[in-house]
Design a protein that fits this description.
The structure holds two protein chains of two kinds. Chain A has helices at about 10-30, 65-70, 100-105, 130-135, 195-200, 225-230, and strands at about 40-45, 55, 75-80, 85-90, 110, 125-130, 145-150, 155-160, 180-185, 205-210, 210-215, 235-240. Among the domains of chain A are: about 45-140, 2-Layer Sandwich (Alpha-Beta Plaits); about 180-240, 2-Layer Sandwich (Alpha-Beta Plaits). A three-stranded mixed sheet of chain A has the order 1-7-8, with no helix packed on it. In chain A, strands 3-4-6 form a three-stranded antiparallel sheet. Chain A has six helices and twelve strands. Chain A is α+β, with helices and mostly antiparallel strands. Chain B has two domains: about 5-40, no CATH class; about 55-369, no CATH class. Chain B is built from 17 helices and no strands. Chain B has helices at about 5-15, 20-30, 30-40, 45-50, 55-75, 95-105, 115-125, 125-130, 155-175, 180-210, 215-220, 225-230, 230-245, 255-260, 270-295, 310-330, 340-369. In chain B, helix 9 (about 155-175) runs antiparallel to helix 10, helix 10 (about 180-210) packs parallel to helix 17 and helix 15 (about 270-295) packs across helix 16. Classes of the chains: A alpha+beta, B mainly alpha.
């Protein structure tokens, strides 16, 4: 059995370590490195892919519920709009900022920003409705510059730049992962036709075969939105990568 | 009946000589009442006790030292330190702001505390802290700047410094709190661990200098033959004992914030906490002043032209400040020792070092004789 013991130092090692600690301290007093960002007066420059507040573009939304499905914290709840379509609402009290919803959105309707300092008065206010997600929240900007953390060969250092950092990033909308809906157990199909009614791109068609209704999915037309997968009562449809 | 004229002539014959300020002081000295007050302030013992390096210097140090400590330790740890109050002066009035806050805060005395002692001890602590200043010699060889000359100065100082932990023990006992009890017991343990090497080191220096009069101590350190060169081991032991006595890191064992949340002072709030907070710094100042006097040649240094006696005082304060800053900055370098490790250092390495230092002194004395 191997025993773990404290390392043994003789007096020479001890003196060496004391001198090294004290000289490091003296060096830092004379030439200190500084990693403090004076936050309200300056901001840290975050990368464009920073996972912050999420904006929503209703024009791109196809109401596919993918964001709601993928959310690991169950923070996204789809709400019916007057037009009859479903749009996401986001509860920031639950959100863990994993941005799976942004990544999974097939139409690129959800968009990340670099806003990370939003304050709410109470828990109810953290439940953000669809219409509140379209515009970025009001931010009082006190900063006159931004700070970049530069990691060079030896250590970390700060690079300060005058000017206001743009918090809303211009990124190309996510193309999403190309998916197609496929029926995994056609023998269990009820032939209810709900998927045909749900499909917005007309990829699902029904045909009669031996006196039974069979559903057929056209892979070329399918956008992989997953509406049929959600609505299928037998849960025999799955989304697959192309 | 006190002879007023004899008293005045005693005062006038022992004035601090500052050539640069003399043209300013001469007309003031001629005035009827102000003249006597100025003469009293410039009376050497009074000047040393009240201004440099006495109470006024100590007060300024108490205001500045925590700021220096926080700022320098902040630099060591890549932080900024106090800044938000008066950013243009880098937050130098931080402690003033803190003490104002302490002043207007409610002082809570909980039900189980011994009320009388609880309030008394932080104030009584000033007695053993301030009295050693009476014997500190800030002058150089041949030019003593000392309030009271006595052949037993070092012994009285050691006695008064040994009295300080008694007040901390009293504070912890009067608080009647489990954390303060633990802190008090730790303080009591450490007290014996550092006090014996401390006294042995003072004894070594008394043997080396052949006198315990602070005037004689400074006279024996003429030129570059400072105490630290004559007996470096004693200086090292004295420094470690000082760090232990003031409960600074790495020997912050009685006050350990993370374990017993400021130990004996856990129940204090408001201005009482403010007093408890400066207690450590007062002790640091007094012990650093003694270290400057015993080991760093007192006020010796290149004479600043035109300042006369004040020049010695300034050198003394600069040396004391250096000792204080080194002591305070240990906070940024070392983690805290456990109680048993602290005791082992006190009863082991420090006691051995102190005894070697005593032997060294005896050998040096023997060679000299």
């Amino acid at each position: 059995m191997k025993k773990v013991a404290t390392p043994e130092y003789d007096i020479k090692d001890k003196l060496k370590h004391h001198v090294s600690a004290l000289s490091t301290a003296a060096k830092e007093v004379v030439m200190p490195l500084n990693v403090t960002t004076q936050y309200p007066r300056e901001r840290r420059k975050m990368p464009d892919c920073f996972r912050g507040y999420i904006l929503f573009d209703p024009e791109r939304c196809i109401s596919c519920f993918q964001c709601s499905f993928v959310c690991p914290a169950n923070a996204i709840w789809m709400k019916e709009a007057p037009s009859g379509r479903y749009y996401p609402t986001l509860d920031y009290g639950k959100c863990i900022f994993c941005h799976f919803c942004v990544d999974t959105c097939p139409g690129g309707a959800l968009k990340q920003t670099k806003i990370h300092d939003v304050a709410y008065k109470d828990m109810d206010e953290m439940f953000t409705l669809t219409e509140e997600m379209i515009e970025p929240p009001e931010i009082i900007r006190e900063d006159e510059g931004y700070v970049d953390y530069v990691i060079d060969k030896e250590d970390l250092s700060l690079k300060r730049t005058k000017g206001i950092d743009k918090l809303i990033v211009d990124v190309a909308p996510s193309q999403g992962v190309p998916l197609v809906s496929l029926c995994v157990e056609p023998e269990n199909c009820l032939g209810c036709g709900i998927c045909e009614g749900m499909c917005e791109s007309g990829a699902v068609s029904s045909l009669k075969e031996d006196g039974m209704v069979r559903m057929k999915i056209d892979v070329d037309k399918c956008t992989g939105c997953g509406l049929c997968v959600k609505e299928c009562p037998m849960q025999i449809l799955r989304l697959f990568r192309e | 009946m006190i002879d007023i004229n004899a008293l005045i002539s005693t005062i006038m014959n022992n004035q601090v000589n500052i050539p640069l300020l003399q043209p300013l002081l001469d007309p003031l000295l001629g005035m009827p009442v102000i003249g006597y007050i100025i003469a009293l302030i410039l009376w050497k013992p009074f000047f040393v006790l009240i201004l440099i390096p006495g109470f006024a210097t100590m007060g300024i140090m108490l205001l500045i030292l925590p700021w220096i400590e926080r700022k320098m330790v902040g630099r060591m740890q890549w932080r900024v330190g106090p800044r938000e109050i008066s950013p243009h002066t880098r937050g130098i009035i931080q402690l003033l702001a803190d003490s104002l806050r302490f002043l207007f805060q409610e002082v809570i005395i909980h039900k189980d505390a011994h009320k009388l002692y609880f309030l008394q001890f932080p104030f009584l602590y000033f007695i053993p802290v301030l009295l050693p200043l009476l014997f500190i010699n800030a002058g150089t060889a041949g030019n003593p700047l000392v309030p009271i000359q006595t052949d037993y100065a070092l012994q009285i100082m050691v006695a008064l410094i040994s009295l300080m932990p008694v007040f901390i023990l009293g504070v912890g006992w009067a608080s009647n709190n489990r954390f303060s009890f633990i802190g008090t017991v730790r303080e009591a343990f450490l007290y014996f661990a550092y006090e014996i090497p401390f006294i042995v080191v003072i004894l070594a220096m008394i043997v080396l200098y052949g006198t315990s009069n602070t005037v004689g101590v400074i006279d024996k350190q003429s030129g570059v033959w400072w105490g630290i060169i004559q007996n470096p081991l004693a200086a090292l032991t004295f420094f470690i004992a000082t760090v232990m006595a003031t409960a600074r890191l790495p020997f912050e064992i009685p006050e350990a914030d993370q374990e017993v949340s400021f130990g004996p002072f856990v129940e204090y709030s408001g201005i009482a906490f403010g007093l408890a907070y400066v207690m450590g710094y007062e002790k640091m100042y007094v012990l650093s002043a003694i270290m400057t006097m015993l080991f760093l040649g007192g006020g010796s240094g290149p004479v600043i032209p035109g300042l006369g006696d004040l020049s010695y005082g300034i050198w003394f304060v600069i040396k004391t400040l250096i000792v204080l800053v080194v002591m305070a900055n240990l906070r940024g370098v070392y983690p805290r020792y456990r109680l048993d490790q602290g005791l082992r250092i006190g009863w082991g390495a420090m006691l051995i070092l102190a005894l070697i230092a005593l032997g060294w002194s005896i050998v040096v004395m023997g060679v000299r004789l």
